[in-house]
Amino acid sequence: MTSKFVPRSVRTAKPCAIVNPWNAGSGFFLDSLLPATVILYRAPEFRVAGFAAVQLHLWFAEMSVDHGKRSGSEVVTREAKSANAIATLGDRPLLPNSGIPLDLNWVQEVGVNTSAVERRAQTQVARRTVKKEWQAAWLLRAISCMDLTTLSGDDTDERVRRLCAKARQPIQPDLVQKLGIEQLGVKVAAVCVYHTFVETALTALEGSGVHVAAVSTGFPAGLSPFAERVAEIRRSVEAGAHEIDVVITRAYVFGGRWQALYDEIAAFKQACGAAHMKVILGTGDLLTLRNVARASIVAMMAGADFIKTSTGKEPTNATLPVSLVMVRAIREHAQQTGMAVGFKPAGGIRTAKQSIDWLAMMKEELSLSWLNAHLFRFGASGLLGDIERQLEHYATGRYSAEYRHPIA
């Protein structure tokens, strides 16, 4: 199966600047990483009409996903043209990922042009960013795609309850009033905890629509016996976790043991049942971008609902080059199979500007369908404080002190 680069189009975009138009060439997957022109856009649906936030309200409502109750004819985005579709790519409706048999020819054909990846990632951070009401709207979207996480050895029930309270009300009430967004009901996507605290989180979040995610399979190393890792997943699912974050065995990637990796992830998927499975690749440990790309493809073949960069415990966590490789793998998988997979960068994303970089990348590389919590997450609790400070600056013209925006 040959993987070809398909140029993207930036739909619904209102161009306001052209940034370094040039082409990186052509070739196999990720060998061509820049379109003929790179457009910096202002999408009208992101605009906040003053403090009334009329335009933001319309966009936010159209793009939001209700994590609690969902109707039988659920439609994740207005672009979806099929009742069972969760996203669209181009004009093609995409179904949830149910996995496919392992295709070793596809895996072996995957290649990465590292210099092209780095150049493309650099254009993402070098361009002008959105400002004022457009920035505020993008930052609210970032909050709605956030997983608040506490995965420390000194975690307690009380800390988890405080984190859940923040998940319910991520923006301080007085700031919500200043922004005029009371009706939006902005909340984060999920709270991620160890299995021990799943029941505590479920109780604290009851009725909020915020999901509870549990890390599993010997997190963060993923080296406990296989049977114990599968049993750990089942215990978290039985406790009520909506999402399970699993860790792969990195040695399978280093040794090119793709069948073993596929079988491992497929077994994890079976143990997850109806719970969404996020597969953590541990990209900081995988050494090369080609390993990242191949591991991403195998994880999606095995049925991953999300692929996730890292545990947050590695020396190097989410970076734009690594994220670009994984997002291109998601697009390749969607083009070949007609199924959508979500993406979660975790660790190392700490500023509001970085969150917009990642959101813009998702819109440009995939589509608006991926700008919701059903297909995109930030694993970065520290990010929320800086976003609150930026929103307060937009509302008042002044930056607040960091201590005014505690997480837990």
Written overview of the protein:
With 408 residues, the protein is of the alpha/beta class. The protein has one domain: Aldolase class I (TIM Barrel), CATH 3.20.20.70. Helices cover 39% and strands 12% of the residues. The chain is built from 14 helices and 12 strands. It has a 7-stranded parallel sheet with strand order 5-6-7-8-9-10-12. Strands 3-4-11 form a 3-stranded mixed sheet, with helices on one face. The chain has a two-stranded antiparallel ribbon with strand order 1-2. The longest helix has 18 residues, at 320-337. The radius of gyration is 20 Å and the shape is globular. The protein starts with 13 loop residues before the first strand and ends in a 12-residue tail after the last helix.
CATH architecture: Alpha-Beta Barrel
Query: How many E strands?
Result: 12
User: What helical percentage do the residues reach?
Assistant: 25-40%
Q: What is the strand content?
A: 5-15%
At CATH level 3, the topology is TIM Barrel
Structural class: alpha/beta
CATH class: Alpha Beta
Unreliable stretches? 1-55, 57-81
- Whole-number tally of structural domains: 1
